Amino acid sequence: MSEEKIRCKDCSRDITNEGGVSVPTDNGMVCQNCRTNYECCRQINCNIRVSKGSRKYCDKHKKEMECSECRKEVEDVYYSITIGDKLERDYNEAKKFNLCQSHWQQNKESYKEQVSQGKIEVLKSFYSKDGSGFGAEWLTTCKTCQKWSDEYEGVKHGAIIDYTFCSANCQKQYDNLSSEEKQNLIQAKQLSSNSQIKQTQPNSPQEEITNQNKSNYLPWILGGVGVLGIIGIVVYFLTRKENK
Ligand SMILES: [Zn+2]
Ligand SMILES: [Zn+2]
Ligand SMILES: [Zn+2]
Ligand SMILES: [Zn+2]
């Protein structure tokens, strides 16, 4: 039956018997000759071909791989952003989206509040221009000036690069803070993480507080019992002496 024949969608050649050579695209198979006009979808494990130069992802994966601002397919460099506290991330309820490079540049300052609250994760992915390699890195921010870590070199300790600070200068600035100022920073962080827990789990912090209060009274109760016991023993010996 001629209807069962598979034809290359570009040159119409019969490729019914070229299963291993012809390749799938978004809207049909192409023959081995025509496949040179296509490249593989960039999504790992996807073997759908897309037109060379104009596209990076197949129809199915384009939806996942578009910038949430401009709705364009992301290019060689893009940013995958997850916003939500740890609980939301663990339960897959955090907000996840991709940004193209220019929309990352436009929005990156607005995410710094979430950084200080520990509510954001940013993965920067990049393809080398010649298509030979793919890489990704988690971004952090400088502890002092809050610059994003892909904008600075970090502090070199021999072969190891420390990305906690953007520069030796920022590290010095942080080191010069008095221990009191550092303590304030830590306390501010703890406060914000506590209020985070309160927002997501309204019941449990109350329980925690009452539990803490209980355990705080315990030494006093034990102490009181001890003191009463000693008084009892003293009184016992005193009355025994009087009896003699
Ligand atoms: Zn063809
Ligand atoms: Zn794909
Ligand atoms: Zn965009
Ligand atoms: Zn810095």
Overall description:
The chain is of the alpha+beta class and 244 residues long. It folds into three domains: 61 residues, no CATH class; 74 residues, no CATH class; 43 residues, no CATH class. 37% of the residues lie in helices and 18% in strands. The protein contains seven helices and ten strands. It has a four-stranded antiparallel β-sheet with strand order 6-5-7-8. The chain has a two-stranded antiparallel ribbon with strand order 1-2. It is elongated and about 120 Å long. About 10% of the residues have low confidence. One zinc ion (ZN) binds next to helix 1.
Question: What is the count of β-strands?
Answer: 10
Distance between the termini: 123 Å
What percentage of the residues does DSSP assign to strands (E)? 15-25%
Ligand names: zinc ion
Query: Low-confidence parts lasting 5 or more residues at pLDDT below 50?
Result: 192-215
Tally of DSSP helical segments: 7
Shape, please? elongated
Cα-based radius of gyration, to the nearest Å: 32 Å
User: What structural category do the secondary elements indicate?
Assistant: alpha+beta
Strand order of the largest sheet: 6-5-7-8
Q: Describe the main β-sheet briefly.
A: 4 strands, antiparallel
Mean pLDDT: 81
Order of helices and strands: EEEEHEHEHHEEEEHHH
